[in-house]
């Protein structure tokens, strides 16, 4: 069955989410820059180091977290600037138009959180932006995902979840803090039993909440992939699974029972965890497993080209899932995605993106790689510190 097509003119389908204006101030290589795209496909072409990825990073900061580079607040500010930076975006989504803004004031690069505003009104965090925009991305740094560490795949997994559940990042951070608190208590010669029980009680609650969100997202994504897989597509489908006991349990047991079981595990493993200096069981160690659907081979055993194609297919499927769950399509960011694709796969990618129904931002060093998109995309030339229509 071919992949589902999201038609933005279909009143029964997801609304097309899009950025109508992006303005940067003192951000990375840009003292000031502004883009007002019209087409659903947006191409940023320029030499290496010109600042193409900086634009995608700005868009990725319209979501909770540290963006596609996982940068600190200080790293984002313009060199030789005053330390502050700002992003302003006009967006359209399920609730119509909105103006989103985020950044930090001058001299506050060590601030714990960045400022966020919707229609000039302050909000608590970028999680509030989720009502108006969702963003998914693929960068060259992700090409080694299937060969990398479990921690890298876990961060990728949590980003998949965060795109459909804006509070997931808050829960993941809270779980990490709770685990650190437990580890510190176990380092003591005679930790207070009541305090240790309280910390483990909190840890189990957070662990189950995190695991449940992961398990549900992967279940939905796997179901969508199965329902829309196309054997003729050059971007093969992936069979997904989670390697985590808590994630497996929440799919078959009530959450309260899973919490009780995990608390018992934490109690039983105290001596072992004290010796190890860390908590050795739990969702903080979960791994995302992927199989190349057509061949049945584990993703990590596939060729580099197969892994890249598999990852592209997975990101496109995830974009469809976000649209299905949010009611509007996400902004899709593809950094240097066409650079290592053969002409046939490149043409197939552009066709797939056109059918996705989402606004897609792409970067590339070679403008010729996007010749097939002339007339279908807004093309911008990026030079150091400046962006102009090509």
Q: Could you please describe the fold and organization of this structure?
A:
The chain has 390 residues and is α/β, with parallel strands linked by helices. It contains 10 helices and 15 strands. The chain has helices at 52-60, 73-76, 150-162, 168-187, 193-228, 245-250, 255-268, 270-276, 304-326, 343-356; strands at 18-27, 30-35, 41-45, 85-93, 96-104, 115-118, 121-123, 135-138, 238-243, 287-292, 297-298, 331-334, 360-364, 377-383, 386-389. The strands form 3 sheets. Strands 2-1-4-5-6-7 form a 6-stranded antiparallel sheet, covered by helices on one side. Strands 8-12-13-3-14-15 form a 6-stranded mixed sheet, sandwiched between helices. Strands 9-10-11 form a 3-stranded antiparallel sheet. Strand 10 (287-292) and strand 11 (297-298) form a beta hairpin. Helix 4 runs antiparallel to helix 5 (193-228) and helix 5 (193-228) crosses helix 7. It starts with 17 loop residues before the first strand and ends with a strand.
Main traits of this protein?
single chain, 390 residues, alpha/beta, 6-stranded antiparallel sheet, 6-stranded mixed sheet, 10 helices, globular, disordered N terminus
Write a short abstract of this structure.
The protein has 390 residues and is of the alpha/beta class.
